[in-house]
Sequence to fold (275 residues):
Amino acid sequence: MEFKTKYITPDIKLSCYEGKPYKTELAFKHHMLIWFISGETKIVQADTSYLFKSGDIFLIPRNQLASIINYPKDGLPHKSVVMHLTTTRLRDFYAGLNIKPAGMPIQKIRTFNGHPLLDSCLVSLIPYFDVQETFPEKIASLKITEAISILREIDKDVDDILANFEEPGRIDLADFMEKNFMFNMPLEKFSYLTGRSLTTFKRDFHQAFNMTPRRWLTRKRLESAHYQLVEKNKKPVDVYHEAGFENLSHFSYAFKKHFGYTPTEIKHAQKDKTL
Fold:
């Protein structure tokens, strides 16, 4: 896989790669405004999924756990323009405005396909990636300010997201983990997103599940994979990523250790149980 990234500034980049589908799991530190030039991207969250194609424009709110799978398509590379809307820049933008977000917003991905103002704003960035000298920060700042202003014009609720600078608050840990166990994140990220220190997270986790986070996560992911293999008749190669495992060999090893048989032996094992 060949991956190339060109930066106008640290907050504006053009990413391009060719090869097999590429998957990553993350929770963005900043809001991300993304415009697809070619290729496809599938984004899977706890309760929904999205498929974005050439020409699509969307905003991913910060601190949202997601699996992102990027695909080259139709002989073209996966290519996109990405703009980071950082908390620092947004604070500066909203400093002179009397905006009060209406509580914690629903942090869903927002799409803005086919809007001429936003299209032209992002398309206008393309020539700048060919500039060899250092790109002036003033111009970069103007382009990001332009994008924010257009978002506010076409989406009257976007201030509730962009002008909200609160860190994740304390939420129900058990409910959050039941919905997000498949994301292969460090425990520090899970603790942050549930509004806890790592020490408090581990303590509350044990109270909720009566076992350590790592042991529970492994068991939960294996049980989910088992369900997909038996009830949905999926193949191991199509399941291990969805269940939160990094590679097929580790998944197969952990699966056999837990259930006593490998994922490929599951049909025979289920048949033996019915005899």
